Amino acid sequence: MALGLSMSARRKFRTVIERKLFDTGGDQLAALLRERRTLLITTPTVYRLYGGKVQAFLGDHKLNASIEVVRLSEERKSLEAIEEICALSIDHRLGRNDILLAVGGGVCSDLVGLGASMIRRGIRHVRVPTTLVGQIDAGVGIKCGVNFRNRKNYLGAFHPPTAAHIDPSLLATLDLINVRHGLSEIIKIALVRDSKLFELIESYGHRLLHSRFQSPAYVADRVIRRSIELMLEELSQNPFETNTKRLVDMGHTFSPTLEEESGFSLPHGEAVAIDLAYSCLLAEDLGILSSEHSQKVIRLLQRLGLPVSSPLVTVELCKTAISNAIAHRAGQLNLVLPARIGKGMFLESASSLNEDRLKRVLDRVLAAAASSSSKSAERLGERRAPINLQIAKES
Ligand SMILES: NC(=O)c1ccc[n+]([C@@H]2O[C@H](COP(=O)([O-])OP(=O)(O)OC[C@H]3O[C@@H](n4cnc5c(N)ncnc54)[C@H](O)[C@@H]3O)[C@@H](O)[C@H]2O)c1
Predict the structure, then answer these.
(1) What is the mean pLDDT of the chain?
(2) Shortest-distance Cα residue to atom 15 of ligand 1
(3) Which atom of ligand 1 is closest in space to residue 269's alpha carbon?
(4) What end-to-end distance do the CA atoms of the chain give, in Å?
C-alpha cells in the first residue's frame, strides 16, 4: 500500500508602488508591521543614505522594530552572511509570526529571504528594494539564494515575501552603473513582452537614466510598474521554474558564461546587454527578426551606454554557453529570441546554430560595437573596480 501526503499551498504576495515610503507614505507597510516584532536588516550604504528617515518612520508609526546594519555585498553573499542573519534573529528573539524586513539591493533581499526561509523553517519577510534591479527583478520574485563553492546562487530557496514595497524615490542616490543594470533588465522584458514599454525607454531612457528615475516621475513610475507587472505575469505562470521555457530568460543564455569567463568582473547587467545584442542579431540571421528591429535594440542599448559586445565573446564562448544552457534547461536549449520588439519566441534546439552562423553574427556584433566605441570611452570614468569573486555560474 502506498501512502501519500497531498499538499497544496496557494500564496500571494502584495507589491505596492509608492513614492516617499519613509517620508509621507508607508501606511500600508506600517499596518503590515504593526502587532509584530520586526527586524529590519539593511546595509551600510543604504543606512547612511536613508537610516534617519527609516528610524523616523518606525518611530512615527510606533512600530516594535529594531534595525541591524550588516555588511552584505556580492562578495559576502555566502552562508556566513546567512548565519549572521540567523544569529541576529536569535539575538532579537524573533518568533514564528515576526518579520524580517530587507531594506537594500538584490543582495540584501536575497540574503534576508534565504535567512527567513530557514529560521524556524520559514518566517515572513518583507522587501523594500533600493536598487532598480531590486525594484523590477530581485525584490519582486520569489527566489532567494547565496553563492556557494564558486557558483552563483547555487544554494537558495523559493520563499515568497509577504510584501514588496517599491519606492522609486529611493533610486535618486543610485550610481549610473546600477541604473543601467536595471535598464538592461527592463529592455529585456520589454523586448519579449511589450513594444509600448520598449518605446517608452526609447523616448525617455536617457532622461530616466540621468535623473535616476526621478524625472519625469510619471514616466519612471509607469516604466517600473509595467516592468513589475510583466515580471509577475511571467513568474505566476511558472513560479518554481518547472517549465524551462521562460521568456524572462531573454538575455540570459550567453550572459552567464560570459560573466564566468570575465571572472565576474563584467557586471550582470552589462553581460545581459551583450547577450541581448547578440541574440537580436542571431534572430535576424535566422530570419526571425527584421533588421529594422534588431538595429533599434542595438541603438537603444548603445544610447544608454550599455555595451553590445566584449572581447571575451568568441565563437567558442558562444558554443560553451549553448551547451551550458542545454544542461541548465534539462536538455533543451530554449533560447529566447525576439520575433519582433514586444514578442519573444523559443529556439528549442541548437541544430541551426552552426559555427558559420555564430561567427557571422559575432562579426556583426563587433561591427556594431566598433561604431559605438566613443560612447564606451565616455563611460570609462564610471566603471567600478572588478569584484573579487570567483564564481562559476548562475544557477
Ligand atoms: N532573487 C532573484 O530573483 C534575483 C533576481 C535578480 C538579481 N538577483 C540578485 O540580486 C543581486 C544584484 O542586485 P543589485 O543589482 O541590487 O545589487 P546590490 O544589492 O549589490 O546593490 C548594488 C549597489 O548599490 C548600492 N545601493 C543599494 N541601494 C542604493 C541606493 N538607494 N542608493 C545608492 N546606492 C545603493 C549597494 O550598496 C551596492 O553597492 C545579485 O546577487 C543577483 O544574484 C536576484
Answers:
(1) 92
(2) 133
(3) 15
(4) 38
